[in-house]
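The following block was generated as part of the benchmark described in Methods. Ligand: TXE.
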Amino acid sequence: MNIKNYINGNFQNPKNNGWIDNYNPSNGEIYGQIPNSSKEDVEDGYLSAKSAFKQWSKTTLEDRSRILIKISELLEKNLDRFTEAESKDNGKPISLAKAIDIPRAASNFRFFGNAITQFASESHESIGQNAINYTLRQPIGVVGCISPWNLPLYLFTWKIAPAIAAGNCVVAKPSEVTPMTAYLLGEICNEAGLPKGVLNIVHGLGTTTGQSIIEHPDIKAISFTGGTATGAHIAKVAAPMFKKLSLELGGKNPNIIFADCDYEDMLNTTVRSSFANQGQICLCGSRIFVEETMYNTFKTDFVAKVKQLKVGHPSDLDTNIGALVSKSHFEKVMEYINIGKQEGGKILCGGNEVKVEGYENGYYLEPTVIEVQNDDCRVNQEEIFGPVVTIMPFKSEEDVLKMANEVKYGLSATLWTNDLKRTMRMTNELEAGIVWVNTWMLRDLRTPFGGVKESGVGREGGFEALRFFTEAKNVCIKY
Ligand code: TXE
């Protein structure tokens, strides 16, 4: 199946007729092609967005909201079709795509369709100066949204929905590794009555298509989720053009477990926070630190549970761990397992490729737990982004806090304890954009979402996203 670009409401081939193969990670086979769009295709997308902006930015909030909610409803109506497409393209279990990815994409549109009707700006009365100031929140114009492959439609729509809700028009590029659901979204947008040109989806490689978006002088804001190295590159390109930037990058998140926690809840959630989506979530708790007094108990129970996880074909309903997204990513994760061994880490379970019967060329890997001696090793410092976690014991709150913060990343942290004072101390001190206490990945779309340090710049979610996608203009009237 050939995917096409979605520009000005139409589906079209890339101008240079350049194509990239699209792989099914569950069997390693090519099952379609996607455009390798050039600068000219991006320009087409931009011109279409620019011409739609005049009218879309003046469209009433009620009308914008209605269209976004319609898109959400159509995604729900097409749940099975989108679920199957996402699972096939990405390798994730179909059960996960059905329970999380596609419902969340629908929620993104519904949430921002509603949020825009509640979004307000401030006024300041300048007392004694006979003046009133008010702030206009105006859409930026044409904005770029670039998303990764791990949660394809979920993260794609997390950017697009607030961008268009706020009155912008968009040139968007999904990951070339997982383009399918973004492609299908175009049809839904047409059906929902989204005016032509408000959303333009240009497919292709990061270094060509993506690069043309970030370099475009009139695309004034870039919202990006992906690797830290790519984020740094985008920041370099965008800075001299003074683009607004929102960067959500990698993580190496600590999962800190104290002996006073609710044990069963912690254990079950820790299996999920380690291996959900094959460990390919920027929020996964990939460094597990366990209080010394319960370390051996935890180690035994955790490893026993991890061994029960079923690695299998994504469409089998009892599969817990599907395929990794691509061959190159599979190789990267395997390389880290080797690094872990070389560094003296002990493989407590997993560590090997899995051959799933009938799908021997798929990219399957056992969920892997590595016991490490200290936090300085590479497997504890670098983002692996696969079904691999490390575990090690800690003695004191002070020690674990130091280790938790001694990474270049700062996206999320998870803390398991029932001690209120410790919770307060540690949540204040942890260097992360999100701290979960006695839970993981519990999301409320109104909350600010993003990281500190090399995990990114800016926050998505709620009104933060609407602020990002608007320019504040102060108007001062003297009377
Ligand atoms: O991501 P890239 P990759 C981490 C994870 C992973 C590593 C690399 O550790 O192993 O990043 O993954 C587009 N201009 N995360 O290489 O390249 C690209 O086409 C404009 C964490 O797959 O950052 C895709 O659409 N765009 C992360 C998007 O950037 C460019 C999720 C992300 O791809 C570009 C994914 C360029 N020059 C990986 N180069 C998270 N935070 O959740 C690439 N792209």
